[in-house]
Amino acid sequence: MNTEKDLIKRLTTKGTKDNAFKELLHLYKERLYWHIRKIVLSHDDADDVLQNTFIKVFKNIDKFKGDSQLYSWMYRIATNESLTFLKKKSKRLQISDEELQQQTINNLEADVYFNGDDIQLKLQKAIATLPQKQQLVFNMKYFDDIKYKDMANILDTSEGALKASYHMATKKIEAYLKSK
Fold first, then answer.
1. Among 62, 83, 96, 139, which residue's beta carbon has the most beta carbons within 10 A?
2. CATH domain 116-180 topology
3. What distance, in Å, lies between the first and last C-alpha atoms of the chain?
4. Coiled-coil segments, which residues (predicted)?
């Protein structure tokens, strides 16, 4: 198996960039899709954001410094693309971010790509009540099992702040689920 450094080298070399990028897609497409999907909730929106994410990765791979792992860098791009997408969508619909979140949760029940049961739907609704940063931290820790150290790189914040956000998020989710 090729190392990450080898993949980065092939991604930044003219003759090998296309094949290396196909490999990168194969390696990270599904994980990034689900990361994005947890932020935007809709399958169609997640597909659009994923495509934008990989376009940005392809265009900017030469700017990757190697300070973090490649997947951390891509998760950061995917996170930023997701948040930007939501901001643009709420602006386009002329509603607040909170109203957009509520609308998206309501649409989740009708989404043919959502195959969760009642408990999963309640959990998604509980997560949707959290402030955006807590949503991100909860999803990355609870669903993706991303270490705080890696999360700190992706979200550009301290591990302590992330632990506090996760703790607050779990308390709020618990309270929400107990009240329903």
1. 139
2. Arc Repressor Mutant, subunit A (1.10.10)
3. 48
4. none
